[in-house]
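Annual report, structural modelling task.

Input specification for the iron/sulfur cluster complex:
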Amino acid sequence: KAVIAWGSCSSWGCINTAKPNPTKSVPITDVIKDKPIIRVPGCPPIPEVMTGVITYMLTYDRLPPVDAQLRPKMFYGQRNHDKCYRRAHFDAGQFVEKFDDIGAKLGYCLYKVGCKGPVTYNSCSSIRWNDMLSWPVESGHPCLACSEDNFWDRGSFYAHEPTILPPSWGLGIQATADRVGLAALGVMGAAVAVHAAASAVARAKSKEVNKDMGVNE
Ligand code: SF4
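The model returned the following structure:
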């Protein structure tokens, strides 16, 4: 029915095609042209994803629906970022700045230390690994985007992605994590200012009441 490309090497070329690609390696789509191809990328792919693709084909006697890059939608339809348990910290602008800082100890978002979860389509954050024991982000390391095309040549594993999609911050379609962090500080600063103003008014009122009652402060 189809050729299934297990892993990022057959799917994209992966490390074999990394610059300068001395062996002139190519992805499977450059070699096989006369059969449907299903890509199941990952370095390595998740075992449950691999068995899930075959189980689907045996159960329904048809190929699984795939996305534009030939990946089964049921496993590659969402980004790791979408189901990440650290996502609340991302939305709140709370980031690990260094691997040994307080943010790392508190389990903040790893975006600034290179996490590629926002641009990686896979099931790592939901299925996880080793009988759902853990996945890289859960062990404190950024997602490397190992299931995405060309991940070896996308720059440093520890440099953050230049763009993110935080609509809740009202910063437009694209904004950097730094701006999100600054926006968080801005909100916090405004909250502190409001609190200070409210306290000053309360103090002034209290002084007036004391004056009316003849109480010396
Ligand atoms: S950037 Fe990484 S650590 Fe942060 S929420 Fe997204 S996937 Fe999780």
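The mean pLDDT is 83.
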